[in-house]
Amino acid sequence: MCVLKRTLAIASLVGGLQSLSGAEHWERYAGLWGADVRALAEAPNGAICLGVGHHDVHGGPDGIGGGLYVSNDAGNSWERTPLQGPSVAGIAVSQNRIFVATFGEGVWHSDDVGGPWEPLNTGLDNMDARCIAAAGEALLLGTTSGFYFLDSSNTWQPAVTGGSTGGVWAMARSPWDPSTLIAATDSAVWKSTDGGGSWAASGQGMAQRAARCVAIGSNGRCWAGTFDYWNGYAHFYTSADSGATWSLAYAPGEFDAVWSVAISPEDPDVIMIGTGCLADWIARIFRTSDGGQEWEDVLSTPSLRSISIRTLLFLPDQRVLAGSESSGGVQLSVDDGITWAPALAGLEAVNVHAICLTGGDILVGKGRSSAMARGVQGGQTWIDMDPGFPSAFVRAIAVWPGNAERILTAAWNDAYLSSDGGERWASQNLGSFGTAVSISPADTSIAYYCGHRLYVTRDGCATWEGPDTTLGYGVTTVVADPRDGYHAFASASGYLFETHDAAATWDTAGTYDCTVISFHPVADRMVYLGTAADGVHASSDGGGTFEWVSANLADQSITALAVGPGDPGVIWAGTPTGVYKTLDGGDTWMPDSDGLQNRHVLSLDVDEAAWLIRVGTYAGGISWSRIDHQGAVWQPGSAEMLRLWVAPVPSRGLISVTPAFACTTAESPLDISLYSLGGRLIRQERFHAASPFVWDLGGIPSGAYTLRGTHAGRTAHALVVMTP
Questions:
Q1: Which residues contact 15 (CB under 8 A, 6 or more apart)?
Q2: What span, in angstroms and rounded, lies between the C-alpha atoms of 208 and 56?
Q3: b/e sequence 574-610, b meaning 16+ C-beta within 10 Å
Q4: Taking all residues of the chain, what is their mean pLDDT, rounded to a whole number?
Q5: Fewest C-beta in 10 Å: which of 239, 311, 327, 549?
Q6: Contact (CB, 8 A) for 258 and 308
Q7: Residue 345 DSSP one-character state
Q8: How many CB atoms lie within 10 A of CB 702?
Q9: Which of 138-147, 295-304, 546-555, 588-597 has the lowest mean pLDDT?
Q10: 189 pairs with which residues across the strands?
Q11: SS in 3 state form for 477-503?
Q12: Cα 358 to Cα 623: distance, rounded to the nearest angstrom
């Protein structure tokens, strides 16, 4: 055994904050499966390519991050490829090369999924792609503004349309004539007869103008699915004259948008469509085996919580894949689309909006639509909580102080309360679009919920008051003071509000468009604000005044905040471009995203006991890092400190621990705990010694661990590396 010594002191700092150095290295948790699947396609070698990414229905990016996955076992399991980060919108194969269209970074191409990948964007003046298609030897691209084709010099040229198309969502090539194509756009179904060089509108007979998917069968029939966000009358249409005129083939349900369509290559009468319902946020797959005369609902997804089925792909041997929006991942059918089961192994690209610790477990809120998961044994194993959770899209989680079984969540359609650790949930009937929850540690009968408006309970969720009309509409976040049960901050409509009577009255505390508000757990006068476009602000007087502390912060759009467990000068800021860290209260910031494959940060959480920090990202799951800085940690009104020195002893499995106390209470108990770097408690023991002692760690596997010592309210950490 070899032990690497590392010392972290906890001490009083006099005369300001000390400048420290150090940054984290992130490791991704495995097993938190799911992804926002936008594209599926077969590669030239028979593998299946899967694209992860997100863009909303109005054309704006709702997250940066995604990437390409590959399956070599017909969709049963998935592996990451080197193309990670871009938000994938479409995949095409042409002349044995793979082309990936992304939302924000244009087109990437390679002759192998393993790379190398290179951009292909010459001439492209719109990098926000929605689809890509091969038409013979030609390559076509659809963007949020229209059609492009790749010319012989590998330069993108805009197609001729003679009018505005709006965003292009899908293209389909005729199986008998590669120069004939139809496309789904925001304005109509369009048609090209010259391989994509020019297009003309072709939507006569459609009640809705916005189309989202198209397909052409081997029998010549054309199909198109539509979307009507405002009126809720999306339908599925068919054309028997190459798209000149259309007639209604199926109305899957009020508010159902038809997002995807696939036709069996073996039988053109076997057709499947994927839908998404804006009313209940449940995706469905409908199937017909008689060319559209009769339809059967073969998959509804209340447990999957998928908003929509965005892509469908027929494979040989009656296998069919369906890609779900947000964290829903992939569904697989092995009987030609009649029955379905999840196929998520290795697809670790969920969106993690919330991270919370409870009883040694890690709770995460996933989204947009796959609810919650629990990481046990420090995240070594993940349990999907969706089947028991009655809602979708969890944005915030709070655990009752002193009661790990009691959990309050902010979900898409309501607040939900569990009193048994998440087995059962009770709706609080507080309204939709939940964004934040906060429970007062100083008075656990008081809790707050943001659901566009603010609600408060003063009796532990037995009854709720609200909505609070003082703050108006658009409440984004709320946080309770950990030391004063009646004190809290909330943000709404670009203003910061403060209460000293548990939301009975509110005062305006400034014009801050806050996305997150945080109290320091130790420094009782420190308050931090993360804003939508103005970086981080900090207060050292309990919120009386705030100072902008983001002078050299590279990204001023703050999505998450975490503060040092002891030192108020240590702050982590999550942004759409990664994690940034300051060790001097915001005077200087440094990038802190080493190891993150997707850098759009959605959540941050500090685990003081294990000396870890965790980050949840868009399309990148959850990652962890040992907190990687050393120095003094602020203790108000105290000059006492604790240091730990760790060294090996000759006998295997033994370490010598030397505590040093700058106080007179060294004879009081010293609690020593050993944690895995993933946060799981390995061993714990209490010592009554102010001098060096030996701790037997026999039987513990090789690896790196965090040693934590606690004495008289002070804490120290050391890194222990066990080797054979």
A1: none
A2: 19
A3: bbbbbbbbbbbbbeebeebbeebbbbbbbbbbbbbbb
A4: 84
A5: 549
A6: no
A7: B
A8: 10
A9: 295-304
A10: 184
A11: EEEECCCCCCCEEEEECCEEEEECCCC
A12: 18
Residue 227 has pLDDT above 80, yes or no: yes
642-722 maps to CATH 2.60.40.3080? yes
| Domain locations in the chain as residue ranges | 33-120, 516-526+544-620, 642-722
DSSP 686-708: EE--SS-EEEE-TTPPSEEEEEE
Residue 60, token pair as written in the block: 């704006």
Instruction: Look at strands 693-696 and 703-711 and give their pairing.
Output: unpaired
b vs e for 378-413, b when ≥16 Cβ sit within 10 Å of the residue's Cβ? bbeebebbbeebebbbbbbbbbbeeeeebbbbbbbb
Instruction: Check if the beta carbon of residue 102 is closer than 8 Å to that of residue 129.
Output: yes
pTM of the model: 0.82
Given a contact cutoff of 8 angstroms between Cβ atoms, the answer to whether 30 and 65 are in contact is no
Query: Token digits for 279?
Result: 């009313």
In residues, how long is the chain? 724
Residue 28 region, left (φ>0) first, then alpha (ψ -120 to 50), else beta? beta
One-letter amino acid for residue 172 of the chain:
A
Q: How confident is the model over 151-199, as pLDDT tens digits? A: 999 999 999 998 899 999 999 999 888 899 999 999 989 999 999 999 9
CATH architecture of 33-120: Beta Barrel (2.40)
Non-local (6+) Cβ contacts of 523 within 8 A are 540, 568, 634, 636
Q: Which amino acid is at 230?
A: W
Q: Which long-range contacts (CB under 8 A, 24 or more apart) does 656-663 make?
A: 656/692, 656/693, 656/694, 656/695, 657/692, 657/693, 657/694, 657/695, 657/707, 657/709, 658/691, 658/692, 659/689, 659/690, 659/692, 659/709, 659/711, 659/716, 661/690, 661/711, 662/11, 663/712
Distances (CA, A) of 259 to 235, 273, 332, 389, 697: 10, 7, 18, 26, 57
